[in-house]
């Protein structure tokens, strides 16, 4: 006789809890495997179509070619018109040096220049006088030389006239030598005096030190009353409108990088919501370790290979810099589009 309870179980369609759990697990595992395969395929496609066309680094910093403000003459500082962190425009007065000594030198040079012009003018006046003497003595000598053989003129008189003629000739030649090939204003003595005058004017103008570029004042190290020394920097002007980014990429990231490629950047100062755009301006000529003060000594028995980094200079959009100014030394995140 068949077991009625088993028959009732089959008719009722009841499945044991353990079997149902196994079936559920198998189905979930299959779904997870399919989802995993889809995600892996999508990630592979994303890397192949998108990610592989970009190289990125966060080892990047804002940099700029700063302008040092250096006096070209020595003197006591009378005024310092700017402070650190102050914005200045090109040509603004930064420092004023006591102009008293420079003014006196300028006045002496002006007087010397005027005296030299007058002196040179006398050279040309002397030529006219010497030429008149030369013409007169020449005529006297020629007249007496013609009648010298007739006895009308003594040999002593003829010799005296000849000597006067020769002296006038030498004097004329000497006077002409002082001005040969020149006029008053292009005479060497006048030009030398003019050079001294120009130098004095330049030194006088240098008592006022102006901003060489527009930017932010930094590292001010001069105070009123101090002696400014020629050639010793007193402050720095940072042209923040001309900043660029030096991004240090690993050597194996630079295979497809070349100047002109588009770059997207973000700064910790503004966060990821503000993007900067630029282009690759150039790739450094060597690694950072190659230009270190103490370069790495790789020719040793303890050498360990280290992936090197090469700086890549990135030029930024000046319009974006006006809207969101950057400061030297800020860290940046950089992504270069190497698809083109």
Written description of the protein model:
It contains six helices and 14 strands. With 340 residues, the protein is of the alpha+beta class. Among the domains are: 98 residues, Elongation Factor Tu (Ef-tu), domain 3 (Beta Barrel), CATH 2.40.30.170; 107 residues. A hairpin with a 3-residue loop joins strand 11 and strand 12. Helix 3 packs antiparallel against helix 4 and helix 3 packs antiparallel against helix 5. The longest helix has 47 residues. The chain is elongated. The two termini are 83 Å apart.
Q: What is the count of β-strands?
A: 14
Q: Give the integer mean of the pLDDT values.
A: 87
The percentage helix is 40-55%
Report the sheet-strand fraction. Answer: 15-25%
> Tally the helices: what do you get?
6
Strand order of the largest sheet: 1-10-13-12-11-14
Order of helices and strands: HHEEEEEHHHEEEEEEEEHE
Q: What general form does the structure show? A: elongated
Radius of gyration: 45 Å
Distance between the termini: 83 Å
Decide which structural class fits the backbone.
Answer: alpha+beta
Low-confidence stretches: none
* Major beta sheet summary: 6 strands, antiparallel, barrel
Summed up, what is this model?
With 340 residues, this protein is of the alpha+beta class.
List keywords for this structure.
four-stranded antiparallel beta sheet, Elongation Factor Tu (Ef-tu), domain 3, 340 residues, 40% helix, alpha+beta, 14 strands
């Amino acid at each position: 006789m068949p077991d009625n309870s088993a028959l009732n179980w089959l008719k009722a369609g009841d499945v044991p809890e353990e079997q149902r759990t196994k079936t559920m697990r198998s189905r979930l595992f299959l779904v997870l495997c399919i989802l995993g395969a889809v995600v892996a395929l999508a990630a592979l496609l994303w890397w192949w179509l998108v990610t592989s066309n970009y190289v990125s680094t966060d080892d990047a910093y804002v940099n700029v070619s700063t302008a040092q403000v250096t006096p070209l003459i020595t003197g006591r500082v009378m005024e310092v018109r700017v402070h650190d962190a102050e914005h200045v425009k090109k040509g603004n007065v930064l420092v004023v040096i006591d102009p008293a000594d420079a003014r006196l030198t300028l006045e002496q040079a002006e007087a010397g220049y005027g005296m030299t012009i007058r002196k040179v003018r006398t050279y040309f006046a002397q030529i006219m006088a010497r030429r008149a003497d030369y013409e007169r003595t020449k005529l006297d000598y020629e007249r007496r030389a013609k009648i010298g053989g007739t006895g009308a003129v003594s040999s002593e008189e003829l010799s005296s006239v000849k000597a006067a003629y020769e002296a006038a000739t030498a004097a004329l030649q000497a006077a002409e030598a002082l001005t040969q090939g020149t006029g008053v204003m292009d005479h060497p003595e006048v030009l030398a005096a003019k050079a001294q005058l120009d130098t004095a004017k330049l030194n006088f103008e240098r008592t006022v030190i102006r901003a060489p570029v527009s930017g932010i004042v930094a590292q001010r190290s001069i105070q009123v009353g101090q002696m400014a020394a020629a050639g010793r920097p007193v402050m720095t002007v940072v042209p923040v409108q001309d900043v660029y980014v030096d991004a240090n990429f690993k050597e194996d990231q630079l295979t497809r990088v070349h100047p002109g490629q588009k770059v997207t950047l973000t700064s910790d100062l503004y966060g990821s919501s503000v993007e900067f755009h630029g282009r690759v301006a150039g790739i450094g000529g060597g690694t950072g370790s190659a230009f270190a003060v103490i370069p790495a000594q790789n020719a040793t028995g303890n050498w360990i290979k280290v992936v090197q980094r090469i700086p890549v200079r990135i030029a930024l959009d000046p319009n974006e810099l006006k809207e969101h100014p950057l400061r030297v030394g800020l860290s940046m995140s950089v992504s270069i589009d190497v698809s083109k």
